[in-house]
Amino acid sequence: MSQLRRRLFATILAAALVAFAAPVTSLSVEAAGEGGTPPDTWAPARALPARGGGAVLALAVDPRDPRRVLAGTTGGAVDLSTDGGATWRTVRSGLAGGVLALAFDPFVAGLVLAGSGGDGIWASKDGGESWSRAAGGGSGPVRAFAFAPDLALAGTDHGVWAGRGVGPWSPSGLDGVAVSALAAWGGTGQPPQVLAGGDGGGETVVPLYRSLDGARTWVPFTGAVGASTMVAALAAGPPAPGQNAPALLLGTNAGLFASGDGGASWQQLTGGGALPPADFTAVAFAPQDPQRLYVASDGGGSSGGGLWVSGDGGAHFTPLQPPAPSVTALAVAGGSTPVLYAATLRPSDQAVQVWSYLDAGGAPGRPQRPRSATGGHAARSPAPTPAPVRDRLAAWLRRPETPYLGVGALAALVVLLALVTYVRRERQL
């Protein structure tokens, strides 16, 4: 009988340990971050290759592989990392006018587009490894891309162009508008809807247009966004609960705006202390959470920029405190815990750096020191002011790994109770 009890106890213990090991394994993967970096910590990527040089105005991350990242520089280079920024290599150089836009096509695996300042559209079919100039892609500046299941669009200084991959590309309206931002949605069984924003060049009405038929015809949004002369960034997220239209974010040179009804109405999110009245040059939604959104500003090359996150669809924002305030490019990927890649430009010495950040919902920790191309470290960036203990505790409770800790603790308690019961029964015999 004693031997039977020992076998039964061993079985219970093994089952409990397995139940405990699964949450711990998940936690270790979730909390390790990219390259072993703790969550909510800015980790510097390796310095970009010197070839091309200049600031980074474009970042793109593969939606199927969050460690495959592309960076485009003002010196005309496209650099590729397949390990989350630990190493880089130049895969294309010499693009006239610099690289202004980079985007992975979410509907075609491995397809990437690059928009240049003077060489038109370039395309890669192998995830950024090799590049060729797109047929019919023009030669002027290309500043933005947007995608639908059967359509790809490019925003140029001469309107919107439509095509796919290496082309052919052709004009698709708004010929007289310098289009600087695009967003597209829908397209499954019906024409996709498109939003296009431009640079008004000082005009009192910001150029903002919508197409309901896949960029064939366009209708202006008269008076939709005030106090702005340029649309710098657009993003479309999944529809909010109870809505058929997607949530939209619009960054301008004078503030941030949001729409929950596909652009029919807009609400300004700046003001009231939530966000500064900055120029918002990058906006993005978390891939699996339409209520979690990110907005960035380069501050016009000053210290007035930054990066902010909202977990409630824009009602409240929290600064993510990037190590340098001027954020010149942003890309977001990942699953339930988003991975951010941000490029910064330090105004004091024009130092360029690419960073990664695993956003687990906590307060930003002390940033790691930047790594040089040879593996050395640059000067340490100033650490952000630590958050109050109450705020850090609340942030920790909101982290995705917290339920795993609870399950693990419960499993450990079961093991402890079983052990105590077993010891007591053995002593009674």
In short:
By secondary structure, this protein is of the alpha+beta class. It has three helices and 28 strands.
How would you sum up this structure, described in words?
This protein is α+β, with helices and mostly antiparallel strands. The chain folds into two domains: 2-30 and 404-428; 40-388, Methylamine Dehydrogenase, Chain H (7 Propeller), CATH 2.130.10. The protein has helices at residues 2-32, 389-398, 402-428; strands at residues 43-44, 56-62, 65-73, 78-81, 89-92, 99-104, 112-116, 121-124, 132-133, 142-148, 151-156, 159-163, 170-171, 179-185, 193-198, 208-211, 219-220, 231-239, 246-252, 256-259, 267-268, 280-286, 289-297, 306-310, 318-319, 327-334, 338-346, 351-358. Strands 1-28-27-26 form a four-stranded antiparallel sheet, with no helix packed on it. β20 (256-259) and β21 (267-268) form a beta hairpin. The longest helix is centred in the first third of the chain and has 31 residues, at 2-32. The termini are close together. Mean pLDDT is 79; it is low at 8-35 and 373-401.
CATH class of the largest domain: Mainly Beta
Indicate the overall shape. globular
Largest sheet: 4 strands, antiparallel
What is the tally of helical segments? Answer: 3
Percentage beta strand: 35-45%
The figure for the number of domains is 2
Low-confidence regions: 8-35, 373-401
CATH second-level architecture of the largest domain: 7 Propeller
User: Strand sequence of the main sheet, in spatial order?
Assistant: 1-28-27-26
Distance between the termini: 11 Å
The number of distinct β-strands equals 28
How much helical structure, as a percent, in the residues? 10-25%
